């Protein structure tokens, strides 16, 4: 009898421990979601089968989203930063709503209020760190910003500590375990959504190309994997996503690598994409203008002898960034989809189809950005490991804010170092 009851509980991968958790959380699917397809599209596509109707709905909305993406790119990096923040808030809302619908059935206090309060605290911390790091001269010029920057981490900690004490005061007898579940739920959501979105902003400030190319590679891989899977898919890829196929996975990989090479070639020739975002004291505005680094200057590479007979060329002119784009597009194609698989497992655990029904045919915003957050982390680590070095302009900015005696000490130390290296003498000659 025990074995029979256990086998009944193992529905769709659910174990006995899952059933216990389900009973503790109320036993109901927290968020019923459905595609809210516009009536105009429903009427226009009414004669098609559900499979082809979904294909057209997804295609039309995908083109609309790509168009919107081009518009915000045209508006510049600061608008892009605001869009990233809006996306972050919406993704946080979608995940927290799932937890809230479970939590609300017990009528326990402050979960939603505390969740949004912690979001505010974490955003204050990250945005403060970002502004101080990238726009140091602006911060030092304004007295209120200088004070906030000086005590930024203490203020952030005090704000978080206030929320922590509020959570402890909200604990209700007989529901401690559930409340700690939801406390953990909020913090894991913050870790996944907020931290990753700020990594996206850091990538953006290094140059729009580090923002656009990775995001575009994920979008391309998503589209091409769907297209190859739709028309040629026969072999299931993973049980978490039954519609994903090996044909789509492989087709998406080769298409994305080729797309990354072409997009990188086009964008590497424009300073507005390759230069980092900086604050100009003379114009009191944010600028994107610089002398392109070696990454974005055409260089000649020798083609391996094995390939020379095939392509008929001995050398090829490429931007060095295109070589890096191969790494980015490869990650977007091979590892990026695991962010989607992770989200699929999460949705199946709560028996929901999508995180929300914000975008017809696509689900919620989180359904579209599940792979993007994993990609953002990789790009940030890649930049720190292989690309980014000490920034002379930032060092000079900080040097100029020191006291005169401190500046003189650093000057003498640097002068002695250059004399020992033999560089200062050669410059004087």
What does this structure look like?
- There is one protein chain.
- By secondary structure, this protein is mainly alpha-helical.
- The chain has a domain at 48-108 and 172-389.
- Helix content is 71%, strand content 5%.
- The strands form 3 sheets. The chain has a two-stranded antiparallel sheet with strand order 1-2. A two-stranded antiparallel ribbon has the order 3-4.
- A hairpin with a 4-residue loop joins strand 3 and strand 4 (285-287).
- It is flat and about 80 Å long.
- Mean pLDDT is 82; it is low at 1-35.
Low-pLDDT runs: 1-35
| Structural class computed from helices and strand pairing | mainly alpha
Strand content: 5-15%
Q: Give Rg in angstroms.
A: 26 Å
Average pLDDT level: 82
- What is the 3D form? flat
Offer a few descriptive terms.
two-stranded antiparallel ribbon, phosphatidate cytidylyltransferase activity, membrane, mainly alpha, 429 residues, lipid metabolism, EC 2.7.7.41, 5% strand, 6 strands, phospholipid metabolism, two-stranded antiparallel sheet, 20 helices
């Amino acid at each position: 009898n025990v074995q029979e009851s256990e086998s009944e509980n193992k529905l769709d991968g659910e174990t006995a421990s899952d059933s216990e958790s389900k009973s503790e959380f109320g036993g109901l699917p927290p968020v019923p979601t459905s595609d809210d397809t516009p009536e105009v599209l429903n009427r226009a596509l009414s004669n098609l089968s559900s499979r082809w109707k979904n294909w057209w709905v997804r295609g039309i909305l995908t083109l609309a989203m790509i168009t919107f993406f081009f518009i915000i790119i045209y508006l510049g990096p600061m608008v892009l930063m605001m869009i990233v923040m809006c996306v972050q808030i919406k993704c946080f809302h979608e995940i927290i709503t799932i937890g809230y619908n479970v939590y609300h059935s017990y009528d326990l206090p402050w979960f939603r209020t505390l969740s949004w309060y912690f979001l505010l605290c974490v955003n204050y911390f990250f945005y403060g760190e970002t502004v101080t790091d990238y726009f140091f001269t602006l911060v030092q010029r304004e007295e209120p910003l200088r004070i906030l920057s000086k005590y930024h981490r203490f203020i952030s900690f005090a704000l978080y500590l206030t929320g922590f004490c509020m959570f402890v005061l909200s604990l209700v007898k007989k529901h401690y375990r559930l409340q700690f579940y939801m406390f953990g739920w909020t913090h894991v959501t913050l870790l996944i959504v907020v931290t990753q979105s700020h990594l996206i902003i850091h990538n953006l400030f290094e140059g729009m190309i580090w923002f656009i190319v990775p995001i575009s590679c994920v979008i391309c891989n998503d589209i091409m994997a769907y297209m190859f899977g739709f028309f040629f898919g026969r072999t299931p890829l993973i049980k978490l996503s039954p519609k994903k196929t090996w044909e789509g996975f492989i087709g998406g990989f080769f298409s994305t690598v080729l797309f990354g090479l072409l997009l990188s070639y086009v964008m590497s020739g424009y300073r507005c994409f390759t230069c980092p975002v900086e604050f100009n004291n003379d114009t009191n505005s944010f600028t994107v203008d610089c002398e392109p680094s070696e990454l974005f200057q055409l260089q000649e590479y020798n083609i391996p002898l094995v390939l020379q007979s095939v392509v008929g060329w001995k050398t090829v002119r490429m931007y060095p960034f295109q070589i890096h784009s191969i790494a980015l597009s490869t990650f977007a194609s091979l590892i990026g989809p695991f962010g989607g698989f992770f989200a699929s497992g999460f949705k199946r655990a709560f028996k929901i189809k999508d995180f929300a029904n914000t975008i017809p045919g696509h689900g919620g915003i989180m359904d579209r950005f599940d792979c993007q957050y994993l990609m953002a982390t990789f790009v940030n680590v890649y930049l720190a490991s292989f690309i980014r070095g000490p920034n002379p302009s930032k060092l000079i900015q900080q040097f100029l804010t020191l006291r005169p005696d401190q500046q003189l000490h650093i000057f003498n130390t640097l002068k002695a170092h250059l004399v020992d290296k033999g560089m200062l003498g050669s410059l004087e000659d």
